Amino acid sequence: MSYRSNAAEAWYPDPQSTAAQPESPLDLLPPSSLTQPLWRSLVGNLRDTFAPAKLPPLELTSRPVNVGLLLGERLRLPWFRTVFTSIGDVISPETLPPLELESRAVDVGELITDQLSHFWWGSLLRNLADRVSPETMPALNLTSKPILDIIPKSWILLPLWSEVVDTPKVFYPDKPKPADAVRPVNLQPAALPAEKLEALITEPTAADLLRDLRRSRIRQRIWIGLATAQILYMAAMALGKL
How far is 80 from 83, CA to CA, in rounded Å? Predict the structure, then answer.
């Protein structure tokens, strides 16, 4: 009978048990591809590029899932494609197939999003109904026992000194303000005379600045008009579903 530890038995099996089993060689050396020369690796890469090995067809046992546009391709799209896609989804949303659920549904009541989509008088009537005739709930079953002495009797609770001493409140006078305090000066833009204003307009830089300002106002009105039209469309769709 041999006296060996479990660790030794894990690395060195018992010779009596290995006599009946075939030996399985354990090779812990790195692969030979790590020690091959550079020219041999280059030749192997060229052979794989021009004459790759013919492998058998891949057998898939799982069902492929259509994930749509990948995240990397979506980030490479230009900005106007995303704007047009968002407008198209608002005007004519994609019709998706019904959702296939494999789990059992659990009744969780009304969702938070549905509660927020209600009008204000619905929540007012619900609060009044709960106040007048509250719902009768079953008794709560507690499995834990109440703790009698939360604060041990050996502890001493001392109140704050401000709660014990009763003295009249003392209000200290405000600190005097320095006489030479600098008063804030209300600077208002001074109106330029018509001659200087015409001189600024005649300059090329002033004309470019005014043109840029005019174009920015036009772009601002266009974007505000598009946003207003989208909000009105969404409001009309929401009212139509009610």
Answer: 5
